[in-house]
Amino acid sequence: MMANEFPQTLTIAGTDSGGGAGIMADLKTMQACQVFGAAVVVAVTAQNTLGVQDFMALPQKLIDEQFASLAADLKIRACKTGMLADAAHVHGVVENLKKYDFGLLTVDPVMIAKGGAALLADDAVTTVRDELVPLADVLTPNLPEAERLTGLTITDNRGMEAAAMALQDLGAKNVVIKGGHEATPDQASDFVLLVDGRSFWLSAARMDTVRTHGTGDTLSSCITAALAKGEDFETAIRIAKDFVTAAIANPIAVGNGHGPLNHWAYNQGGAE
Ligand SMILES: Nc1ncnc2c1ncn2[C@@H]1O[C@H](COP(=O)(O)OP(=O)(O)OP(=O)(O)O)[C@@H](O)[C@H]1O
Ligand SMILES: Cc1ncc(COP(=O)(O)O)c(N)n1
């Protein structure tokens, strides 16, 4: 393998001082997936498993410089976005994604943290919908995010399927509607609509646990890692579901609130 050819990935998101979500969860997932992970920090949060105490988005100039630094040196094969804070920063990230080639893009349209804190300004939802979603090779909204982006109300499986189609109409190629927030007691079921029109459900036993901090970040960064390794969309999404299921099913005791996932579990044979 050439010196510059090792699979390289990028997360464009916010930090989590508590280590469980955001860029920290992304890099831990990428490491476990045996790809190299780089990061463009858009926002810094003061956060733990109990919630988000404060955050600040970085000046756009510094964000632009991080993109330029990576473009000048690394060979990123796949990237993902997470917390982008506000409309101006969403727009700034979109400009950079159009300027540089960082490979396949997974968009996790992060809006509200598990503890209830807003990680995206309300008026930025339209910017995400109009500017970022059309660039997405894979879009991974949870149910509230899918509702905000489409204007639909999702109450059942049919609603998830309709939302996925609406998101493809907005320009996303492959869509994963995450059912973590669904009120089904037994199953955590995600609906996948692929770019070629095929669709399927991915279901796992729903774990009765509060240790689910960073589940969405973990899923989207595992998809990113698998794509960087050359997997096709369907395989990448299936691997990521197994990875996150194992990471939830084998909890580690950290913090007193929504605890982080176990990013070693999948490699230790912990897939359910
Ligand atoms: N309690 C659970 N048991 C099993 N799987 C779960 C559970 N909660 C979430 N999942 C799975 O985790 C993945 C992420 O889904 P979720 O809806 O929690 O995303 P999210 O809200 O974006 O996560 P976060 O905001 O915490 O990063 C999905 O595959 C979902 O089915
Ligand atoms: C920086 C950052 N990015 C994303 C999340 C979402 O994760 P969760 O919904 O599990 O709190 C978060 N809490 N913090």
TrEMBL record:
Keyword S-adenosyl-L-methionine applies: no
GO molecular function: ATP binding; hydroxymethylpyrimidine kinase activity; phosphomethylpyrimidine kinase activity
Domain Pyridoxamine kinase/Phosphomethylpyrimidine kinase, chain residue ranges per copy: 16-262
Catalytic activity: 4-amino-5-hydroxymethyl-2-methylpyrimidine + ATP = 4-amino-2-methyl-5-(phosphooxymethyl)pyrimidine + ADP + H(+); 4-amino-2-methyl-5-(phosphooxymethyl)pyrimidine + ATP = 4-amino-2-methyl-5-(diphosphooxymethyl)pyrimidine + ADP
SUPFAM superfamilies linked: Ribokinase-like
InterPro entries: HMP/HMP-P_kinase_dom (IPR004399), PM/HMP-P_kinase-1 (IPR013749), Ribokinase-like (IPR029056)
GO CC entries: cytosol
Gene3D superfamilies: 3.40.1190.20
Keywords on record: ATP-binding, Kinase, Nucleotide-binding, Thiamine biosynthesis, Transferase
Protein's UniProt name: Hydroxymethylpyrimidine/phosphomethylpyrimidine kinase
Organism: Levilactobacillus brevis (strain ATCC 367 / BCRC 12310 / CIP 105137 / JCM 1170 / LMG 11437 / NCIMB 947 / NCTC 947)
